[in-house]
Design a protein that fits this description.
This protein has helices at 18-31, 49-54, 73-87, 98-111, 219-228, 237-241, 272-278, 307-320; strands spanning 5-9, 11-12, 15-16, 36-42, 59-64, 91-95, 116-119, 121-125, 128-135, 140-144, 151-155, 173-175, 205-209, 232-235, 262-266, 283-288, 301-304. The chain is an alpha/beta fold. The strands form four sheets. The chain has a seven-stranded parallel beta sheet with strand order 7-11-6-1-4-5-12, sandwiched between helices. A five-stranded parallel beta sheet has the order 14-13-15-16-17. Bound molecules: flavin-adenine dinucleotide (FAD). Keywords: Electron transport, FAD, Flavoprotein, Transport. FAD binds at residues 211, 236-237, 250-254, 267-274, 288.
């Protein structure tokens, strides 16, 4: 059954996040040959429409307004709901990002629809759109189908591959005027931390350190290894609590949930709350001097040893090969 599906493109610092293209790929599956309409919300976003089309969207609707320069729950929900009301879609897809997690339940409650959140896979099986999502902190997966109403889903970044970019694709980019009003929160200023390299939640390679790294300086070698591999540095809460690094790097139940292709855990014991944020990584390498450490139970490759010996050796070896 062909459906019209709305997909929200997520804009950060003037650029589309990768999860936007992944959402288009999910939207295509849900549309089953129907139309995928990308929605872009912000102050000036129309120039990003072409990229959404090149990654598979059929057309783009933008809502541009100076009050939408930064995300606010009221502003974005008014903008997205206006597009939903104008387009009347049968499916909606957002990234399961900080923004998507905040916005999607608001929209679902206004529409009176359900919401299948944090999906890691979407497939068409036996005539149904089947969503797979982790439960019990990633220890099991459940499969869901939507039997009634709008098919509304959020997808976890880094799980559904985007379609190949096709620069010859063209499509309509139209704007919808929306009167944004009654904002209960107004962003006066955005203070960003100096970001170093790759965004942790979208990184393909993560080198994460735990309390075993022993100091902020100890993280320098992990940063070097991450840079060599084109990846990002992450941390356990143990390392954040010990002030070795910023809480924005924390991975786990109360930190970020990541699914990189390669996760290298250095001096991390593997507490259940840490595993909740990384156990779905495609390949896990653990370096720990305790052979009984729980992290080895989820690792594909385990190195029992002192990270201060092993990480420099890895750096030395990776320098020899072009990654
Ligand atoms: P530790 O458990 O102290 O482990 C350090 C490891 O380093 C040990 O295994 C040790 O063998 C190894 N080591 C030491 N020296 C070396 C060396 N030189 N070379 C190699 N290995 C070495 N934790 C998270 O990470 N993320 C979360 O989101 C999170 N949320 C939580 C939420 C709640 C409600 C609670 C109660 C806890 C949460 N925690 C979370 C904390 C979690 O329970 C653990 O305390 C934490 O993950 C431990 O961090 P760690 O593995 O770095 O430290």
């Amino acid at each position: 059954m062909a459906r019209k599906v709305l997909v929200l493109g997520e804009v950060r610092e003037g650029n589309l996040r990768n999860v936007s293209y992944e959402a288009v790929a999910a939207g295509k599956l849900i549309a089953e040959g129907g139309e995928v309409v990308a929605v872009l919300i912000g102050e000036t976003v129309a120039s990003l429409g072409a990229a959404m089309i090149q990654y598979g969207a059929d057309r783009v609707v933008t809502v541009e307004n100076e009050q939408l320069k930064n995300y606010t729950p009221d502003g974005y929900s008014q903008a997205l709901l206006a597009v939903v009301n104008a387009e009347n879609p049968e499916g909606i897809v957002l990234g399961h990002t900080a923004l998507g997690k905040d916005l999607s339940p608001k929209i679902a409650s206004k529409l009176g629809s359900g919401l299948v959140s944090d999906c890691v896979n979407v497939e068409v099986t036996g005539g149904n759109i089947v969503f797979t999502r982790p439960i019990y902190s990633g220890k099991a997966f459940e499969k869901k189908i939507v039997t009634d109403g709008v098919i509304f889903a959020t997808i976890r970044p880094n799980n559904i591959p985007p379609l190949e970019k096709d620069e010859s694709r063209t499509g309509d980019v139209a704007s919808l005027a929306v009167d944004i009003k009654d904002l209960r929160s107004i962003i006066k200023d955005v203070v960003t931390k100096a970001s170093e390299g790759v965004d942790l939640s979208e990184a393909k390679v993560i080198v994460a350190g735990g309390r075993g790294v022993k100091s902020a300086e100890g993280f320098n070698a992990l940063k070097e290894l991450a840079n060599l591999l084109g990846g990002a540095v992450g941390a356990s809460r143990g390392a954040c609590d010990a002030d070795y690094c910023d809480y924005s790097l924390q991975i786990g139940q109360t930190g970020k949930v990541v699914t990189p292709d390669l996760y290298i855990a250095c001096g991390i014991s593997g507490a259940i709350q840490h595993l909740a944020g990384m156990s779905n990584s495609k390949v896990i390498v653990a370096i720990n001097k305790d052979p009984e450490a729980n992290i080895f139970n989820v690792a594909d490759y385990g190195i029992v040893g002192d990270l201060f010996d092993v990480v420099p050796l890895l750096i030395e070896e990776f320098k020899k090969v072009k990654v």
